[in-house]
Structure formats: C-alpha cells, structure tokens
Amino acid sequence: MIDALQFEFMRNALAAGLLTSVICGIMGSLVVVNRIVFLSGGIAHAAYGGIGLAFFLGWPYLGGTLAFALVAAMVMAAISLRARHRADTIIGVLWAVGMATGIVLIDLSPGYNVDLMSYLFGSILTVPGSDLWVMLLLVLGILAITVYFYQDLLAMSYDEEFARVRGVAVTPLYFLLVAMLSVTVVLIIRVVGLILVIALLTIPTFIAEKYAGSLAKMMTTACLLNILFTLCGLWLAYRFNLTSGAAIILVAGAGFFLTVILDQLGIRRQPATSHNTE
Predict the structure, then answer these.
(1) Is the CB of residue 59 less than 8 Å from the CB of residue 112?
(2) Domains of the chain, CATH where assigned
(3) Residues whose CB falls within 8 Å of the CB of residue 70, separated by 6 or more in sequence, listed in order
(4) Is-above-0.85 flag for pTM?
(5) Cβ neighbours of residue 7 closer than 8 Å, sequence gap 6 or more
C-alpha cells in the first residue's frame, strides 16, 4: 500500500481514516456506556436528510449535513429524556422520515448527479483536502470537550443519580454528548457510509470494553483498534478493488469474532469498566 500513497486521494483517505478512528474510539466508548447505540443509528439515518438538503440548496456537504444532524439530534435527545417509554418508537419515526426526506430532496436536486451509494456505504477515497482541515478542527474540539468534562461524563455514564448529587448538570451535559455524537456521525458517513456507522462506533468499543479497566483505557484501546481496522481495510480495498467502507467494517467484524473465539477458549478479560471510576 506504500506505493499508493504517491496519490493525493490515497493520502487524503488515510488522513480521513485516522481522524475518524480517533473520534470513533472516544465517542464510541461514550455511546456504549451510555446505552445510546439506537440513538446514534437514528442520527445517522436522519442525517441523510441533511445530505439531501445540502445538495438541493447547493450548500457545502459538511455544513448542510451537520446543521441538519444537530437539529435532529437535539430533538431525539429531548425525546429520550422526556418520553423514555416512547423514545425508541419516535426515534425510529424520525430515522425513517429523515432518510426519506433526503432521498426526495436529492431526487428534486437540479441535475441529479449524486452517487447515493457513496453516502450509503462511504466514499473515503473522495474526501477532499479542504474537508480534512474541517474534520481535524472538529476532532480536536470534541477531544478537548471530552478531556475537560471527562469526570462529569464518567459520573453521568455510570450513575446518573450520583452525578446529580455531585452537582453535575446532567441534562445539559447529555445534550452536549448527543451534539458531539451528531458531529461524529457526519464525519463517519464520509468514511463508511450511514448504513455502517453503528458498526464502526460499536465493534472496536465492544472489543476494548472486554480488556480495559477504565473508561479512559477503553477509549484509548478503541482508538488503536479503529486505526488498525482502518489501515487493514484500506489496504484490502486498494489491493482487491473493494468498497473501502465495507472492507473496514469486515476487518472490524473479523476482530470481533476473533475476540469471541478467544473468550470461548478461556482468555480472561479485565474487570468491566463500570467498576472503575478512573
């Protein structure tokens, strides 16, 4: 794959993959421990409405999609807090309506020259250099917020009542978490597509959770696993002319099944992260 790096699009793809790996390791851990995997799927599919809106109005992809995803995410967050018993149903409706809206808006876009498959299954090889700088800024912003609010996020993730007793503003922090998740989802769509978003957020995190003794270690391990899966997936895509997003997820899936086999063979795991407040 080294020879492929002479091409600018491959260098951009590698940079986009590495940035996505870091942010997925961090946000994937928070998604899993806060049990909002379904919410992340809802945001991912609703974000397709933002893709359609961006093309219909001629807006930049990142700006239009991010704005739409943030609005959808805030609505879903409010619903999950105020109507927990109906949250899954309502999020499912928003999931479907958002995606249908995107498809219709793309149908109505002048010229209609949009490759739908690139957004469903990723288009990491087409990420332009200008988007990389935006991705870098967003990744650094989310990383800074996570570090700054780490103790509060840790308390909220494992014991919401304890977090309130400690004086943590749980509701605003939850909305902030969901907002960061929506930004993450928009970034991931360019790499693996909206259909495979949940896999990249959860598979490395699931593996990391087995062997990490704290949330911080879980995030670090998930980041490293994401980098490994991304590099291997890109190599396979380049070597065998495969869809890059699907190749990355297949590598991650292979890693998942490998850990399951190791568990069956009796490889001991570390204590669950919920028992350590580091």
Answers:
(1) no
(2) 2-275 (1.10.3470.10)
(3) 179, 182, 183
(4) yes
(5) none
